[in-house]
């Protein structure tokens, strides 16, 4: 073979090798490289990790509540028997054994039992209730070492779209977690007393029967609300969940612990029972709070405020409260919402309507009678 042919053959071989190298390089880019899959036991997304962390930290604070009442099985049986009435959830407030739940969870109960996550069951003592806000405080004699209070958050920091986590005991199942977002803020729902609970948190987190009284938590595991109701056509968790904001709870619970009831001051007057007030407002065509009677010696009597009077011609309407400190008052809810932000001893300006004329009174608020 001549030198010229040898050089030509070498050049062809070099070019061929270069082309093959280029093809192999392109294939190495195009063909997928199968990386080793992570171990599922150690893998989690950031959101999953947060859910797991919050649940592990908060679930020891969540309790299971059962209640029962004494009933007579028949007219001839004089021995009442204890009958299960319902179940719900609650949570540890502090290491003194105080438990917070919904009022409707323990309503009409003769006996309430609180079961901690460690399985220990304790007879609970009723400390105080606020039916208007659907809140109740119980106490158990568990040692502090068995109690894990929740960290309190700030519900004023919530925004629509923020993640929330509900923990409770739906259908009697052991501590269950559901996750959702804040759907709306500033909602209003009716309590068992027909009073409106205002500034309620609305969430799409599944809240089933048995979740009532359980905590609603933020992503830090802080308490931001107390789950209180479900609104849906079927009553199932596919509807809208509601929670009482923790800022309301932080105001009410200490008063229930200290006094057994909320210390909303009073005007020193008697009002119509709620079930009759609407009827008489419609009957007399008025918009305001009808003064049924004034308490003897109280500021309204001294200032000349007058309630209903009965004569031979029938009942004569007295003062109808239409405004307090510049805030319009059209019903008992409005009046109580104004008073909730006052204290005993405060003096308020009350505008009333009587005999087609307006009257103003300076009324000193009284402490709630126990």
Summarize the structure in words:
With 370 residues, this protein is of the alpha+beta class. The chain has two domains: 41-262, Thrombin, subunit H, CATH 2.40.10; 269-364, Pdz3 Domain (Roll), CATH 2.30.42.10. Helices cover 22% and strands 35% of the residues. It is built from seven helices and 20 strands. The strands form four sheets. Strands 1-2-3-6-5-4 form a six-stranded antiparallel barrel. A hairpin with a 7-residue loop joins strand 7 (163-168) and strand 8 (176-190). It is elongated, with a radius of gyration of 33 Å. It starts with a helix and ends in a 6-residue tail after the last strand. 31% of the residues are buried.
Q: DSSP helix count?
A: 7
Amount of beta strand? 35-45%
Intertermini distance: 122 Å
Oligomer: single chain
* Backbone structural class: alpha+beta
Mean pLDDT: 84
Rg from Cα: 33 Å
Order of helices and strands: HHEEEHEEEEEEEEEHEHEHEEEEHEE
Pick out the low-confidence regions: none
Secondary structure: number of strands: 20
Question: For this structure, what is the CATH class of the largest domain?
Answer: Mainly Beta
Q: Which second-level CATH architecture of the largest domain applies?
A: Beta Barrel
The largest pleated sheet is described as: 6 strands, antiparallel, barrel
Query: Strand order across the biggest sheet?
Result: 1-2-3-6-5-4
CATH topology of the largest domain: Thrombin, subunit H
- Determine the fraction of residues in helical runs and give it as a percent range: 10-25%
Structural shape: elongated
Structural domains: how many: 2
